[in-house]
Amino acid sequence: xxxxxxxxxxxxxxxxxxxxxxxxxxxxxxxxxxxxxxxxxxxxxxxxxxxxxxxxxxxxxxxxxxxxxxxxxxxxxxxxxxxxxxxxxxxxxxxxxxxxxxxxxxxxxxxxxxxxxxxxxxxxxxxxxxxxxxxxxxxxxxxxxxxxxxxxxxxxxxxxxxxxxxxxxxxxxxxxxxxxxxxxxxxxxxxxxxxxxxxxxxxxxxxxxxxxxxxxxxxxxxxxxxxxxxxxxxxxxxxxxxxxxxxxxxxxxxxxxxxxxxxxxxxxxxxxxxxxxxxxxxxxxxxxxxxxxxx
Length: 295
Fold this sequence. Notes:
Mean pLDDT: 95
CATH architecture of the largest domain: 3-Layer(aba) Sandwich
Number of helices: 13
CATH superfamily of the largest domain: NAD(P)-binding Rossmann-like Domain
CATH topology of the largest domain: Rossmann fold
Number of strands: 9
Number of domains: 2
Shape: globular
Structural class: alpha/beta
């Protein structure tokens, strides 16, 4: 397909690479041109000087940008130059109402919009093993699936526009709870005089096992957090969860509390640390404000 890929960050860079290796006619655009230039050093494709140039006459535009306003800006600039029937697939994690707004704008131009947030992190993007949850028309999801399968191990149609983003919110609620529990379990292990590697070996084969445990227990125990999904981004995502919960009446007390724990990590200088840095907060509990469920 004739594809424009917008956003060559930690996730977008390898995702676009998978599309290039699959043989698609690819044009890439990034607000920082140096990233697009670096991408072209190892992949086949063309770099566009402007977003409109990237999107012109493309059958498919894929977004992997930062937030709601980024998506609004990209869609507004791309739609006037897209042909009728073009498909926009947005992998950004945004609010559900932005997805619905973009769907309306796309329909008015004879195009189709799918909200398609991803899970799996940088490692999943590099290995082509992302899980993608999509909201939008079933026929468009089928059309997109053959393409985005280049970097996905699972593509799930969750319902109408916005349902992909709502499912991603559930994903982030669950991750936040698991990571906080791991941090507390690890801190308890140390205070109890246990050997963390031995604890992991004992409990990771039973009901406590999780992806986070298998991939983050050791680095949490070693105090290594300079990698992975940044706390700043997690707080952005949890903010979307809390906003949606206020609107739909869902009770997410634990998620709201963990969001404040992440705020403390930011105050500690860990804005770009991995989300597993909740363990660092417990290590330094004595230096933090009272309250909030600390030790």
